Amino acid sequence: MKTTLDIAGQTFTLHRHPIQKNETLQAWDAADEYLIEELENSVLPDNAHILIFNDGFGALSCWAIQKGYRVTMVSDSHLAQLSTDQNLKDNNLEGVDIISSLAPLPVDADIIVMKLPKYTRFLVWQLQQISHSARMNVQVLAGAKAKDIHTSTLKLFEKHLGSTHTSLAKKKARLIFCQKEKQLESAPAETTSFDVADYKMTLQNHANVFSSESLDIAAYLMLEHIPSDESIGHIIDLGCGNGVLSVEAARRNPQAKVTAVDESHMAVASASANLLNHGITAERVECRVNNCLDGFPSNSADMVLCNPPFHQLNTVTDHIAWQMFCDARQVLEPKGRIVVIGNRHLGYHAKLKRLFGNAQVIASNRKFVIVEAYKQPDSKGMR
Ligand SMILES: C[S@@+](CC[C@H](N)C(=O)[O-])C[C@H]1O[C@@H](n2cnc3c(N)ncnc32)[C@H](O)[C@@H]1O
């Protein structure tokens, strides 16, 4: 796997942080390279302020700060922020202002550079944010895999910002050139909501939240099977998204505290709002932006609920699910349990059995299985 990016006479060492054993994926893509080559050919004022949206692992931020520009990188992903920060340090670079997607945008950007996000709703929200707060006529340069740029994508740029055209494809990547000619008077709505009638819930969702427009079908099955047990004192909803599982777990276990964890700032903000809106009192709730359960004390939870991700950015992966299971095993009390839902073909049953030394299917349908595993005080589960 390549870890050295040679571009425009510069060399950067870049990793996907936190580094995985046997990592096979590099920390930048052809769209990053295309964007950097295009920016190298652009005329920018000295000390220009470059506003970067959704830098994956920090390649764009490293390049821009090394050129001497002022750089702000905005991302909803805690992992992207960690990775950008670490790659800057590894290349002896500093000075990038890394902000969350929930923070106000700087208003003085001289150029806006964007990696297209995965969710269209989030793209629209970011375009509206730019329309609301960036300078008139600022150039917006976006990049992505060519297969992810459709006519409908270009229409969104036209609709929310102004004149838009696209480049030829290069190494299967393509660029979008757009100029901000429109001004949105009020800030875009922070959240939208949908109802889960069977569970009497109305869920608020920030734009980048998983399944933000309707309930995920796996989560719907999981809701029915969330355990209720008076001995449970602390529940962790790992990869909480909008917090739908946290809300139901808190209702079924009124004696328990609930910690909702996600690497997305918008997910954690949504979960926090949803728990409080559904009458779960603030003393019972902690909502935390985190990579899996990094930094959580051992033996501190009685139950971990998990509907794991199988994508990181646009890459299908199961290493995050595995990391979540390993962390849960560490953080659970002896006799504590993990309850996991996943697509049948993902084989979570075998993985949990390997790790915990036991695993039982507690429910299933044609597509999904729910597996429960207990931490056995004397088990020597494999890692
Ligand atoms: C399949 S969604 C489940 C969301 C919600 N629990 C539900 O059931 O609808 C998986 C969630 O894991 C989060 N996630 C991905 N990687 C993570 C990581 N390294 N640490 C914490 N959460 C992560 C994603 O942001 C996403 O919200």
Automatic annotation (TrEMBL):
InterPro entries for this protein: DNA_methylase_N6_adenine_CS (IPR002052), RLMG (IPR017237), RlmG_N (IPR058679), RsmC/RlmG (IPR046977), SAM-dependent_MTases_sf (IPR029063), Small_mtfrase_dom (IPR007848)
Gene3D superfamilies according to UniProt: Vaccinia Virus protein VP39 (3.40.50.150)
EC numbers, comma separated: 2.1.1.174
Signal peptide range: none
Coiled coil region boundaries: none
Domain of life: Bacteria
Keyword terms of this UniProt record: Cytoplasm, Methyltransferase, rRNA processing, S-adenosyl-L-methionine, Transferase
Catalytic activity from the UniProt record: guanosine(1835) in 23S rRNA + S-adenosyl-L-methionine = N(2)-methylguanosine(1835) in 23S rRNA + S-adenosyl-L-homocysteine + H(+)
PANTHER family linked: RIBOSOMAL RNA LARGE SUBUNIT METHYLTRANSFERASE G, RIBOSOMAL RNA SMALL SUBUNIT METHYLTRANSFERASE C
Function: Specifically methylates the guanine in position 1835 (m2G1835) of 23S rRNA.
Protein known as: Ribosomal RNA large subunit methyltransferase G
Gene name in the database record: rlmG
